[in-house]
Design a protein that fits this description.
71% helix; 18 helices; mainly alpha
């Protein structure tokens, strides 16, 4: 626990320290701006590389296939091709793992560098949510999810070649993990011109699935599997649903309706002038150039993933299917915070989400039987 606590302290503080001591002193040096975004991911990359091969449920299976002890018939074409290339070069499994981690980290680094308003929060959400744990074990899906995130951002760009690259990344992601096929929904959502009008129907879908998914799953079992529905024993999924529900309620209250925002503004009106001078000193108040419509797009994609994962608490395995869209949350949440006018409220939200997601990481990794195994660097 001490190791991971120190890890999150470094992830949270390193961009801030680099910004204050380097970026502000040398504003024309683009390398320091790059270092500000890249340092947390370099730390994450090192953590992934030095971990033991015994960490993660799937690592042993990948290692066994790589050395030829078992067959790889259950893996997708793209992953098999990639693995065969490293096998033909007679490189050890650790080198193959390192390359996979590069594929996982670089797309998220690019998104953080060019599109995230808060350089410290995106890697922090990546590490404290399900993604770091998934990277420890599920190489195939981790690579696919990272490619889907980059595809999600590129498809919103105006250049046609970027949209072509986005579609190519989607196909590549599907070749690594078949569950990425559901990401086609995110591509379809991108064609809506007014994303704000799509927000409330998706929220309604979330609540419908949240309250009625047990009946839906029972209907599917009864009509298609000709058997009685028995809920799966997944104690962690209900807590996941509560977590995502809390996040959605915050999004609904403060990104759509004016009255809650006015109420917050009245509460923070005295503190905001005192914090106004921080705008030029701390990078957490950097301006955000992403349009409101694009911000709603990432939020919509994230909420579709949330809607799917609420069904998972009933025993289905839709949590994995939803990952390619849930990854939008590591960009949607910082964008949501950056669009709040009150500086005081931004700080409160940053503290809230940071504490909540770190608590989730603790639940995920340290409470016995919460997941099927514990994760350790040793």
């Amino acid at each position: 626990m001490i190791f991971y606590t120190l890890l999150f302290v470094f992830l949270f503080s390193s961009p801030l320290l680099i910004n204050v001591f380097l970026c502000r002193r040398f504003p024309k040096k683009k390398f320091f701006r790059f270092l500000e975004s890249a340092t947390p991911f370099l730390i994450l990359f090192i953590v992934c590389v030095i971990k033991s091969d015994s960490v993660g449920n799937d690592t042993a299976a990948y290692s066994s296939v790589y050395v030829g002890e078992t067959s790889n018939k259950n893996f997708e074409f793209g992953f098999n091709l990639l693995m065969s290339a490293f096998q033909n070069m007679k490189l050890p499994f650790k080198v193959f793992q390192i390359f996979c981690y590069v594929v996982i980290i670089i797309p998220i680094l690019l998104v953080t560098l060019f599109w995230s308003p808060y350089k410290f929060m995106t890697p922090f959400l990546f590490a404290s949510w399900i993604w770091l744990v998934l990277a420890f074990s599920g190489l195939r899906q981790s690579m696919a999810v990272s490619l889907c995130l980059l595809s999600m951002v590129l498809v919103r760009q105006n250049h046609i070649w970027k949209k072509i690259v986005a579609f190519a990344l989607f196909l590549l992601a599907c070749s690594f993990h078949i569950a990425s096929l559901v990401f086609v929904l995110a591509l379809l959502i991108s064609f809506f011109r007014e994303q704000k009008y799509l927000f409330l129907p998706i929220v309604a879908l979330f609540f419908i699935l949240f309250f009625f998914s047990p009946y839906l799953v029972q209907f599917i079992y009864f009509n298609f599997y000709q058997g009685n529905y028995v809920p799966g024993e997944q104690p962690q999924v209900w807590e996941l649903s509560i977590l995502y529900l809390t996040i959605c309620l915050f999004f609904i209250c403060f990104s759509i309706f004016e009255k809650p925002r006015s109420f917050v503004a009245s509460l923070t009106s005295r503190l905001d002038p005192r914090l106004e001078n921080l705008k030029s000193k701390l990078f957490i108040f950097d301006s955000n150039e992403i349009s409101e419509n694009d911000a709603y797009y990432y939020l919509n994609v994230f909420l579709v993933g949330v809607a799917f994962i609420t069904v998972a608490r009933t025993g289905f395995t839709l949590d994995r299917i939803s990952y390619s869209m849930l990854i939008a949350g590591i960009l949607a949440i910082p964008l949501f915070i950056s669009r709040q006018k009150s500086i005081t409220f931004r700080i409160v939200l940053i503290a809230f989400f940071s504490i909540m997601f770190f608590a989730y990481f603790v639940l995920e990794c340290y409470i016995p039987n919460y997941l099927h195994c514990h994760y350790s660097i040793i």
